[in-house]
Structure formats: structure tokens, C-alpha cells
Design goal:
- One of its GO terms (cellular component) is Golgi membrane.
- Its main location: Golgi.
- Belongs to the glycosyltransferase 43 family.
- It catalyses: 3-O-(beta-D-galactosyl-(1->3)-beta-D-galactosyl-(1->4)-beta-D-xylosyl)-L-seryl-[protein] + UDP-alpha-D-glucuronate = 3-O-(beta-D-GlcA-(1->3)-beta-D-Gal-(1->3)-beta-D-Gal-(1->4)-beta-D-Xyl)-L-seryl-[protein] + UDP + H(+).
- The chain is of the alpha/beta class.
- The chain has a single domain, classed as Spore Coat Polysaccharide Biosynthesis Protein SpsA, Chain A (Alpha-Beta Complex).
- It is 25% helix and 23% strand.
- A seven-stranded mixed beta sheet has the order 3-2-1-4-10-6-11, sandwiched between helices. It has a three-stranded antiparallel beta sheet with strand order 7-8-9, with no helix packed on it. The chain has a two-stranded antiparallel sheet with strand order 5-12.
- β1, α1 and β2 form a beta-alpha-beta unit.
- The model has no long low-confidence stretch (mean pLDDT 96).
- Bound molecules: uridine-5'-diphosphate-glucuronic acid and manganese (II) ion.
- The site of uridine-5'-diphosphate-glucuronic acid has 22 residues, from β1.
């Protein structure tokens, strides 16, 4: 199956470094279609050039986060949802360009700043409906993971540092959804109306139940993705003529 990786991205000093890192991960993955969605009114040359250099199969989109929903420079990051408009643009592209029962694939929401093992994509390729796995370095834990029933191997709960009682207490990096499901539920999308921290849980609720989740990564015993965050650099001077 084709893996459709939907990545929101926005202009900041570390953007090219982040996109270089994940595009070079994707270069090691067979059958991947990268849907890269810029949070901007216009597509930027920086992203255009990076795509041209990458040799990847890429769909380049852009849509700006509404100003009232945008995180201010001094706001704590939990104050606003991030990537909502961009992921929805990715979903819209999938639904307008792919056909149910003809195109086969799995959809993964791949933030631009996390760290992804190439092994993760082998797991994503196995997803029948909704696959789940541990995510490292998130929610105040060394990893968030699924609690599996010892006998049935099914998901019975969540080990999450934050609101583990959510219907699906899973970070965006911790699940992937079959394209058939995405195409057959066109109303499913992300929304600013959702409570903060509930995007993943509410979105997954359109498609599945806890009992149906497919635990991957060796029954959730392996960590293949890390919720890393890049420090914001202090830039005191600009060298002209360099795209950084
Ligand atoms: C956590 C989750 O891992 C995200 O998937 C979720 O979107 C986010 O919380 C949330 O609560 O909305 P976190 O590391 O805090 O992630 O968020 P960022 O990595 O800053 O942003 C997630 C994605 O949105 C990234 O791909 C980033 O490039 C993009 N983004 C962020 C924008 O497109 N525009 C922005 O103004 C900020
Ligand atoms: Mn992040």
C-alpha cells in the first residue's frame, strides 16, 4: 500500500533543518507519498526547493492558520491547536484525488519536528483499519503506550502522562488510518471546536473503537517514533545571501 504522510509545516529558523531530516527519512521508505502542507498564504521557495531536491513523490499544499487560532510568540504551546487547518487540507486533497476501492493506502499524520525510524513505516504498511504503537518522549513520560490484554493482545487502556481517560489517549504520531476509512468517512476532520488536547481522540472516534485498535511495533514493545522538539535558536545576526 501507499503511505500518505500528511505534514503541516510553518516558517521558522529551524524549518529547513526539520524538513531535511524528515525528507531524508522518507527517502528510505518505499511507497510513500508526502503531502506537505505549508501554514502560509503562499507557497515558499524554501519548501519548493527542498521538495525539488528530495526526489520524493510530494504534493505541496498551503493554507494559513486563521489569525485568531495562531499561537502568539509568548503563549504556552498548549493554548492553541496546531496543524489543524493544514491536516484538514491534506484530508481534503486525499478525498478529492483518490478513489475508494481503487486507491489503496494508509494515512499517517507526520509532524515536521518528530523523529521517525524507518521501521515505523513497515508497521504503518500493516494497518488494516487503525494501527497504534508507542510514542517516545511525550506527555511527561519516557513513552506513551497502549496497555494490552495479556491473553487477547487487544488494547484495553492507555499509559499516557495526560488525561489517560480520553477515549483514545494517543498522540498524533501514535496511529495511522487506512485510506478506505478516510475516504468512506468524508465528514471526519480536525476542528478548532475540539477541546485542547483532544484532536487525536475526537478524530479517531469517527473511525474506530478502543477494542478494534491494531497494536503494532511488536505488540507495542518497541518505540519507533519520538516526540522530539527542537529548541528555538537565538539568532543575533543574519548572514546575507544564505538560505538556512
Ligand atoms: C502536539 C502533537 O504531537 C501535535 O500533533 C498536535 O498538533 C499538537 O500537540 C496540538 O496540540 O495541536 P507539539 O509538538 O506541541 O505537538 O506541536 P508542534 O510540533 O508545534 O506542531 C504540530 C505540527 O503543526 C507540526 O508539524 C508543525 O510544523 C505544525 N504547525 C505548528 C503549523 O503548521 N503552524 C503553527 O503555527 C505551528
Ligand atoms: Mn512537535
Amino acid at each position: 500500500p501507499m503511505i500518505y504522510a500528511v505534514t503541516p509545516t510553518y516558517t521558522r529558523y529551524v524549518q529547513k533543518a526539520e524538513l531535511t531530516r524528515i525528507s531524508q527519512t522518507l527517502a528510505l521508505v518505499p511507497n510513500v507519498h508526502w503531502i506537505l502542507v505549508e501554514d502560509s498564504d503562499e507557497k515558499t521557495d524554501l519548501v519548493r526547493n527542498l521538495i525539488a531536491d528530495s526526489n520524493l513523490l510530494v504534493t505541496h499544499l498551503n493554507t494559513k492558520t486563521p489569525v485568531i487560532e495562531k499561537l502568539g510568540d509568548k503563549d504556552p504551546r498548549w493554548k492553541k491547536h496546531r496543524g489543524v487547518t493544514q491536516r484538514n487540507a491534506g484530508l481534503k486533497w486525499l478525498r478529492s484525488n483518490l478513489e475508494l476501492n481503487k486507491d489503496k493506502g494508509v494515512v499517517y499524520f507526520m509532524d515536521d519536528d518528530n523523529t521517525y525510524s524507518t521501521k515505523l513505516f513497515k508497521e504503518i504498511a500493516k494497518v488494516k483499519k487503525v494501527g497504534v504503537w508507542p510514542v517516545g518522549l511525550v506527555g511527561g513520560l519516557n513513552a506513551e503506550t497502549l496497555i494490552l490484554d495479556q491473553h487477547t493482545g487487544k488494547v484495553v487502556g492507555y499509559r499516557s502522562g495526560w488525561k489517560a481517560d480520553r477515549k483514545f489517549a494517543i498522540d498524533m504520531a501514535g496511529f495511522a488510518i487506512n485510506l478506505d476509512l478516510i475516504l468512506s468517512k468524508p465528514e471526519a476532520q480536525f476542528s478548532y471546536e475540539m477541546e485542547k488536547g483532544f484532536q487525536e481522540s475526537e478524530f479517531l472516534s469517527y473511525f474506530t473503537s478502543k477494542e478494534e485498535l491494531e497494536p503494532l511495533a511488536d505488540n507495542c514493545t518497541k518505540v519507533y517514533v519520538w516526540h522530539t522538539r527542537t529548541e528555538k535558536p537565538v539568532v543575533k545576526g543574519i548572514v546575507p545571501g544564505l538560505e538556512v
